[in-house]
Structures are given as C-alpha cells and as structure tokens.
Amino acid sequence: MSANVSFTEPWTGTLTHLEWSTPRLLLLAFINIPILSIVVNALWQLLPRPKSQPPLVWHWIPYLGSAPAYGRDPIGFFSQNREKYGNCFTFILLGRRVTVTLGAQGNDYVLGGKHTQLAAEEVYSPLTTPVFGKGVVYDCPNEKLMEQKKFVKVSLTIDKFRSYVGMIEDEVKEYLNGDPEFRIWQTNDINEWGSFTLDVFAELTILTASRTLQGREVRESLNKNFAQIYTDLDRGFTPLHWLMPGLPLPSYRKRDAAHKKMSSFYQSILKNRRENLAEHEDDDVMASLMKQKYRDGTSIPDPEIAHILIALLMAGQHSSSGTLAWAMLHIAGRPDIQEALYKEQMESFGTPDGGMRDIDYEKLRELKVLDAVVRETLRIHPPIHSIMRMARDDIPVPATLSAPSEDGVYVVPKGDIVLASPLISQVDPAVWEDSDTWEPLRWYDEKGVAAQANKQYNEGEKVDFGFGLVSKGTDSPYLPFGAGRHRCIGEQFAYLQICTVISAMVRRCEFRLEGGVPKPDYASLLVHPLPARIMYRRRKFD
Ligand code: HEM
Q1: Are 479 and 328 in contact (CB under 8 A)?
Q2: Ligand 1 pocket test: which of 319, 389, 426 has the largest number of ligand atoms within 8 Å of its C-beta?
Q3: Cβ of 375 below 6 Å from ligand 1
C-alpha cells in the first residue's frame, strides 16, 4: 500500500507529488505522535486553569507525569514542590491525578476526612485484594473493615502481650544460636567482631510474629516452602502491581498462585482446629477470630479468617522489620545511646550475680531510653510515606492549607486521589529542631515539641469508629501509625515486638556501624534502608 501526498513548494511555487509507502507513513506517525502529544500536553498546562484547582506540577510526558520523580524520592519530590506551590498541589501519576496536602493540616484533611467523601478502599484495593484475598480489608464496605479491625483488636489483650515477650526473646536467642550470620556469636568469643545483613530483621520479624500472633501451626510451617509462597506473595505487593493491576507478567501469576496456596494453608489449619477442638486450646488471633461474630450474628467464614490473617502477616512484616532495621542501624552508629540502652537493661533486669532476668512486659513498657529510640526511629523513618484516599466528591481544601491568595479556596475534584505524607510533618524543620537528625534525647524533654506532638497524637479527643476508642489525633505533626478510622491496630503489638527484639539483642551484643546509616530504598511500597551490614560482638551474657 502507498499514499500520495501533494504540496506546493512555498519558495518555488511548484506542485510536488510524493508517493509514500505505508512503512514510511507509520514511521512518521511513530516519531511525530509522541512529539505532538508532548507539545499538546505542554500547551494544555500553559492554559489558564480554573482558579479553584490546586496548582499542577509541571511534567513533560503525558500519562507518565511526575511518576519518575515521585518514585525515585517521594520526600524530595514533596519538599521541592512544597517550596514552589505551598502545602497543596496536584501531580500526574501514570494517568491519575494525585492531590497532595502537606503539613499537620494536610494530614488532618486526609486522615480526618469523612469516609463518605474520602475512601481508602478505592485506592488500595487493586493492590491488596489479590494479595490478602476476597471479603476483607479493602474488598468490603468500610463498616465491615471496622468490624474486622475490632475482631483483631480484642484478640490482642494485655495478657497475651505478657506471654508474647518471653516467646519473642526465645526466638531471638534461638536465632543467635543457630543462624549462620551469627557464626562468631556461636563461637562464644567475646573479643571477635562479626557482621550481619539487614535481612536478619525480616527473618526475626516473621519468626516472632508467627510464634505469637499467627499461631503455632504457622510457626511450625516456616520452612523453605512457606518462605517461597510468602516471597511470591510479597513480590506482588509493589508499586507496579498497584498502579498497573492485571499485567500479563510472571510476578502477577506467581502472586495469584501464592495467594491460593496461602489461603488454603490457613483454611486447612482452621479445618484441623475445628475437627480437634478439644485437643488444642489455642490462644492466638486465629482462635479468637473463630469465636467472634459480625453484628448481623454471622460467624466469620473460614476464607475471611484466612484472609484477615494474611493481611496481618503482610501489614506487620515490612513495617516492623523496616523499623527494627532502622533502629538497630542508628543504635549501632551511636555508642552513647547503645550504652544507655544497655545500662537501662542492667538496671531493670540485672541480677545480683551480674546476669540478667528475662524481659517482662510491665518493665519493658517503662524503659525510657528504649521508648525514645523507637519513637525517634518512627519519626524519621515511618515505613509508609504516602497515605491515600479517593475523593468521592468535590471537596474544598481548608483555606489555611491553600496558598492564601485572591484565588480563594482550592477544591479537590471528584475522582482525584488525595495524599497525605505524615513523614513531611515529622521532619518539618519549622516544627522539629535539627529535624533530619536521629536524636532520641528529644523525647526525654516532657515539655518539648516531641512530647507535645505525642500527647496530641495519643491523648486528645477519643472517637470510636467501630473498633474501640482511639485518639483522633489527626492534626498532630507526629502520626507514625496513621490516624482516624484507618489508624493502625498493630501499634501495641509492633511496639512490643520491636522493643523486645532490640532489648534481646542489646543485652547480648555490642554493635558498630561502618560507613554510616544507609539511605532509604523507595523502590518498595514500604520504605526500608538500602542493604548494609551491622558489626556485632558478643557481650558476656548467658
Ligand atoms: C494501618 C503503620 C504495624 C496492621 C496502618 C497505617 C499506618 C500503619 C500508617 C494507616 C494506613 C492508612 O491510613 O492508610 C504501621 C507501622 C507499624 C505497623 C509504622 C510498625 C512499626 C502493624 C502490624 C499490624 C498492622 C504489626 C498487624 C498486626 C494494620 C492494619 C491497619 C493498619 C490492619 C488498618 C488499615 C485500615 O484501616 O485501612 N499501619 N503499622 N500494622 N495497620 Fe499498621
């Protein structure tokens, strides 16, 4: 096939006929369409915009928008655009409009918004439903999620926490005694330094969470086969799987197969437990879920119990292991804090013969240095940098958030994703002194900014969204566990787990860091440190 093109040469006036073949035309289109769309997109951005719309971050490539800049370094991206546009602006993320609202008021706008106007499930479901499964979390109406959160919350009692501390310490002991990363530890030599990778914290997190929350069968099944299923599931929990659901790629197929296997695994445990009720008196989250009922009187179906447990496994794993890794990196890099932590362990658990008692829950909660270490780690390294909701309506942004100008108040249009980043307010130099420095000492000052922010977060007005009273706290500059109806229910457990693992390690080893604390890796959904090794040396202890 070919096409005839005729044109008059402007400089000579002669009529020229060209016969172009299809490949040539296609090539021309191939080159020109992208250029044309870039030009049209640039011109469109230069057109006057409705004054009520937040400013749009400039981008050259349509559809792709600001995805590379946001994906590479979300915090740098937010900070730069905050300087340019203020606390409220919109950017394009793979064809979606995302309106960012920053600062404590931005957090309040997103996290404190009405559920009828700002919905989490419409944003998160494409990512979470294939991994967690049907009928739970974001694959159900919000009222049902609130009930599911209540089911889990009531099963996390103080009595259980008391028993978990010993189990977690045992897991750390066994790990140090058996894992090849701790070969030097196993030689009993207190002078030699060894080193381990940060993968240790992912392993300790899954071992301790399965021994406590997930139940004995899950802990007993943590073998290579389980690890492979978990890995396939986990690899389906990435920004790509969220933004481009359903691509025909192996990681999507493996994720779906892994979900089926994981769901059947939990359901077979449930079946087994039901058949042997008298034999085992388990006291874990699964046992508690088996006894509870939805408000309409129905029991929780087995597939839903299985999917809630998968959700807990996934929600807790990266957040706790990342926090542990950051905390231990900083501890290793700050000998003064490490010494204070060790002294605190000795003072609280030391025995007259120079040894140490097992850790106990009540005492653990009183440890001031340890508490400050975890709070400070969550301040500068919260695992979730972007919290999102879908605007179900046109929603005005409070005047105090919009740049004060004659433009008046911005309105987020229906269909936009709105995004808050508590990390930005947690490292805002206008709020925190030396905001980028990891400094646990800031939490000692009872009248300081940190203590006040924490008070605002945890001691303000209480609201019950359906899973028990929680402090509203949405306008605090410190929100590591989110706020409002989607606030984390794993907070107490995570604290307990992280504090016990740190205690168990600090009393047994000294740590050292060579090369400084690594930078954050933003490639995964939950922020982790880039790979690094921590040096350790055995202390004179058990
Ligand atoms: C929600 C952080 C550990 C289960 C959240 C949210 C944050 C968060 C920021 C709010 C998300 C949003 O508003 O969109 C953390 C951190 C953790 C941690 C920093 C550890 C250091 C855990 C653990 C579990 C868990 C151990 C399970 C045992 C959940 C659940 C939700 C949640 C079920 C509720 C989701 C919703 O209502 O939409 N977490 N989390 N988290 N987290 Fe955690």
Answers
A1: no
A2: 319
A3: no
Is 140 annotated to bind a ligand? Reply is no
In CATH, which of 1.10.630.10, 3.40.50.300, 1.10.1040.10, 3.40.50.1220 is domain 141-386+421-538? 1.10.630.10
Burial (CB count within 10 angstroms: exposed 0-12, middle 13-18, buried 19+), residue 499? buried
Per-residue pLDDT for the chain (542 aa), expressed as one digit of tens each? 555 656 565 555 566 565 667 777 677 767 778 888 899 988 988 988 888 889 999 999 999 999 999 999 999 999 999 999 999 999 999 999 999 999 999 999 999 999 999 999 999 999 999 999 999 999 999 999 999 999 999 989 899 999 999 999 999 999 999 999 999 999 988 889 999 999 999 999 999 999 999 988 999 998 878 889 999 999 999 999 999 999 999 999 999 999 999 999 999 999 999 988 755 677 789 999 999 999 999 999 999 999 999 999 999 999 999 999 999 999 999 999 999 999 999 999 999 888 899 999 999 999 999 999 999 999 999 999 999 999 999 999 988 776 655 556 899 999 999 999 999 999 999 999 999 999 999 999 999 999 999 999 999 889 999 999 999 889 899 999 999 999 999 999 999 999 999 999 999 999 999 999 999 999 888 999 999 999 999 997 65
- 387 ligand 1 Cβ < 6 A: yes
Q: What is the ipTM of this complex?
A: 0.99
Atom of ligand 1 nearest to the CA of 138: 38
Phi/psi at 157 (5° precision): -90, 165
Count the Cβ atoms, other than its own, within 10 Å of residue 50: 9
**By 3-state DSSP, what share of the chain in percent is helix, strand and coil, each rounded to 5?**
50, 15, 35
Q: For a ligand 1 pocket test, name from 488, 501, 527 the mutation site with the most ligand atoms within 8 angstroms of its C-beta.
A: 488
Q: Are 338 and 315 in contact (CB under 8 A)?
A: no
The three-state secondary structure class of 471 is strand
Whether the model pTM is above 0.80: yes
For the chain, domain boundaries: 47-129+387-420, 141-386+421-538
Q: What single DSSP character describes residue 182?
A: G
